[in-house]
Design goal:
By secondary structure, the chain is of the alpha+beta class. Helix content is 26%, strand content 28%. The chain binds pyridoxal-5'-phosphate (PLP). The site of pyridoxal-5'-phosphate has 13 residues, from α7. It is an enzyme of class 4 (lyase).
């Protein structure tokens, strides 16, 4: 949905020695043009971003998102973000969101072609309503991403573990999933392993063990998955990062797509094969994800 409040950030170097960054933020009208046409974010998707869930004005897991922003920037050879500056920008936009669920988006772009500094901005917008997916589940299809599991190690310039602005492929996969009558997709490697969804991580339950594909396989390490694993481990469940063969997907006892704004959406069908919908467990996962998390 359209942002309701937006800030442009005058990017500070990561080692800037200051405590208050308020004067580096410019409030802009989110409905009006704000970026020069030479912006490399617009021309090439050359930048990184984060989407942070906001529940009744509380921004969830801000530190984890800022650390991943810094990691993505490093992978893309972008200047390191000053984390206090971005934290203060998040706090300012969070204060302008109303009650309910919303999403804060942080963007760090390489800036204007030929320019001297990166461009940054932060917005807040009402969240899409995911109530039906959380309660009734989603149908997914597997889609081949066309690279083997070891591609990220051999070709780090693919930027597999970075949350870059180049999501055209991810959006194309979602459209393909819809064409095939599904709600979402799960990417697989060309050698038959499971990766992630175009905008979410995958968690499987096998008995009392919760499993997710290892982030070494060139996927984004999801903050929601990390938060859920910490919670599940504290409750006494086993959690594991594994190389998951796609052929084992449909034999899971249960499965979810998880991400910062959708939270946990149970998967009820993979490539036409049914999976059990665990309503109570899913409700407890989502109750946790909706609680204030830092
Ligand atoms: N994987 C991809 C490709 C994503 O785009 C996202 C979120 O947008 C995730 C995983 C889940 O990440 P998070 O839980 O931090 O939202």
């Amino acid at each position: 949905m359209a942002p309701s409040y937006a800030l442009l950030i005058d990017i500070a170097p990561a080692d800037a020695d200051r405590a208050d960054f308020a004067d580096t933020f410019t409030v802009i009208d989110p409905a009006q043009p704000a970026l020069p046409v030479g912006e490399l974010s617009a021309q090439r998707g050359d930048g990184v971003f984060e989407s942070i869930g906001l529940i009744d004005g509380h921004a969830q897991e801000v530190t984890a998102h800022l650390e991943r922003l810094a990691h993505s920037a490093e992978l893309c050879d972008l200047p390191a973000p000053h984390l206090s500056q971005w934290r203060q920008a998040v706090a300012q936009v969070a204060a302008h969101a109303g009650a309910g669920e919303a999403v804060i988006k942080l963007v760090l772009s390489r800036g204007v072609e030929g320019g001297q500094s990166p461009t940054g901005w932060v917005t807040v917008a009402p969240a899409t309503d995911f109530a039906a997916s959380r309660a009734d589940g989603i149908r997914v299809v597997t889609l081949d991403r066309g690279c083997p599991l070891d591609a990220p190690a051999r070709a780090p310039w693919l930027l597999s573990g970075a949350k870059t602005l180049s999501y055209a492929v991810n959006m194309a996969a979602l459209r393909e999933a819809k064409r095939r009558g599904a709600d979402d997709a799960i990417f697989t490697t060309s050698d038959g392993f499971v990766l992630e969804a175009p905008t979410a991580s995958l968690i499987l339950r096998r008995g009392d063990t919760f499993v997710t594909p290892a982030p070494t396989g060139g996927i984004l390490h999801g903050t929601t998955q990390v938060s859920l694993f910490a919670r599940l481990a504290a409750q006494g469940f086993a959690v594991a990062y594994e190389e998951v063969p796609a052929s084992t997907l449909a034999s899971a006892d249960a499965a979810w797509l998880v991400s910062s704004v959708r939270l946990a959406a149970p998967i009820i069908d993979i490539d036409g094969l049914s999976l059990p919908l665990e309503r109570e467990l899913t409700a407890s996962l989502n109750a946790y994800l909706l609680s204030g998390r830092d």
